UniProtKB/TrEMBL annotation:
Organism: Halomonas gemina
Signal peptide residue numbers: 1-34
Entry annotated with the keyword Protease: yes
UniProt KW Hydrolase keyword: yes
Keywords: Hydrolase, Protease, Serine protease, Signal
Short name of any one Pfam family annotated for the protein: Peptidase_S41
UniProt xrefs under Gene3D superfamilies: 2-enoyl-CoA Hydratase, Chain A, domain 1, 2.30.42.10, 3.30.750.44
Descriptive protein name: S41 family peptidase
Length: 434
């Protein structure tokens, strides 16, 4: 059906005129080979006209006057939000917000969220933030932010509502899996300065490396942490904790995997554009190529965390333990626009070295261990040991460290199982060597 701009209202005619040159090119009677495109790539003229008519009706009949720029920006937001949960239109403030998240400092409650079945959903709370201290969990549904229902908010609108000045309060109404009634949680916003890497010795020779998210310098920080852990003696084993890690910078994930691999593919991507197809491989310089490794994951491990876990699993470099990961295996590219704003557009999918797609699949652990707490029966006599008695023989400093580590392991069943597995791997290794 040919377009007739003169027959349309003035506002509609202006809008169609802006789109008309592209439409006419699509309808021009040139051979497909000369155009370099198939008929399926032609612009849908009827839909363009319908869009222009909707635009004009809103301008003329909506209860309040709306600026043309706002209508067009909202249309662009709608186009992107309907593609997938991670594509979005970004205004200048949202560009800045994205930069702050990547570099590791912003004002808010410390929560990574996404859209799941149209509902705002917690991917993971960030370590040592108001959200994690309040007990928010992966897969919690956020029904309201203060008095605003989330069912009509875009992902970016929800993020903007949750961020704010430090010291201000925010109320989240959440519904947890397995519970019938929602609960309300009040949080106080803070300046969120996220240190993405933490490390310590669980006991002599066995290290613990926690990566809470992947920021620009995470790979460098992991290398430094491994060197600190090996300062006094070589490591007999290492736990790499990627639980509740929402992902982040792709190159940082490659750098972390490279810290444990001295060769081989880490991850590759596939998309429609030539520059969206990339391959990342390990280099020869490796911080911990031979250290026995257990990688902890759970339902809050997403995106870049799944890249690392999948690479180490496929390369048989370590044992992946915990529960199935989140399954966010898509690549978002930030595309600037001429007006100072931009797009966050999904352009490719991640694949592990063995060709497994992470998207909507996740990483299955080699050893499934449900998170829990080791409880000691009251009165069993097992909760008091010689080391707990005041004045016992031995190094007090050593005992203090052991007591703190024992409490961590008591609280974290998965971590305790990871340490046990590392010890078993060491025993087997020694027996083979003998």
């Amino acid at each position: 059906m040919p377009l007739r701009p003169a027959a349309l209202p003035t506002v509609t005619r202006r809008l169609v005129s802006a789109l008309l040159p592209a439409a006419l090119l699509a309808l021009a009677p040139l051979p497909v080979a000369a155009q370099g495109q198939s008929p399926e790539d032609d612009l849908p003229v009827a839909e363009i006209q319908a869009f222009a008519e909707v635009f004009e009706r809103i301008k003329r009949a909506y209860v309040e006057e709306v600026e043309d720029a706002d209508l067009l920006r909202n249309a662009m937001r709608g186009m992107l939000s309907e593609l997938d949960p991670h594509s979005a239109y970004l205004d200048s403030e949202e560009f800045e917000s994205l930069r702050e998240s990547t570099e590791g400092e912003f004002g808010g409650v410390g929560i990574e969220v996404g859209m799941e079945d149209g509902q705002l959903t917690v991917i993971t709370p960030i370590d040592d933030t108001p959200a994690s201290r309040a007990g928010l969990q992966s897969r919690d549904k956020i029904l309201r932010i203060d008095d605003t229902p989330t069912d009509r908010l875009s992902l970016q609108e929800a993020v903007n509502l949750m961020r704010g000045d430090p010291g201000t309060e925010i109320r989240l109404t959440i519904l947890r899996q397995g519970e019938n009634a929602p609960q309300e949680v009040t949080l106080t916003r803070e300046v969120i300065r996220t240190e993405s890497v933490k490390s310590e010795l669980l006991e002599a020779g066995y290290g613990y490396l926690r990566v809470s998210q992947f920021q620009t310098r995470t790979g460098e920080q992991v290398g430094s942490a491994i060197r600190r852990l090996e300062r006094d003696a070589p490591l007999k084993g290492l736990v790499l904790d990627l639980r509740n890690n929402p992902g982040g910078v792709l190159q940082a994930a490659v750098d972390v995997a490279d810290a444990f691999l001295d060769e081989g593919l880490i991850v590759y991507t596939e998309g429609r554009l030539p520059d969206s197809e990339m391959r990342f491989s390990a280099g020869r310089e490796t911080a911990a190529a031979e250290v026995p490794l257990v990688v902890l994951i759970n339902g809050g491990s997403a995106s870049a965390a799944e890249i690392v876990a999948g690479a180490l699993q496929d390369q048989r470099r370590g044992v992946v333990m915990g529960t199935e990961s989140f399954g966010k295996g898509s690549v978002q590219q930030i595309m600037p626009l001429g007006n100072g704003e931009g797009l966050k557009l999904t352009t490719a999918l991640y694949f592990t070295p063995d060709g497994r797609s992470i998207q909507a699949q996740g990483i299955e652990p080699d050893v499934e261990v449900i998170r829990g707490r080791l409880e000691v029966a009251e009165g069993s006599g097992l909760d008091v040991r010689e080391a707990d008695l005041e004045g016992h023989l031995g190094s007090r400093d050593e005992q203090r460290i052991r007591s703190e580590m024992s409490e961590r392991l008591r609280e974290d069943y998965q971590l305790g199982e990871a340490l046990n597995l590392l010890k078993a791997l060491n025993v087997l290794s020694q027996r083979r060597g003998g």
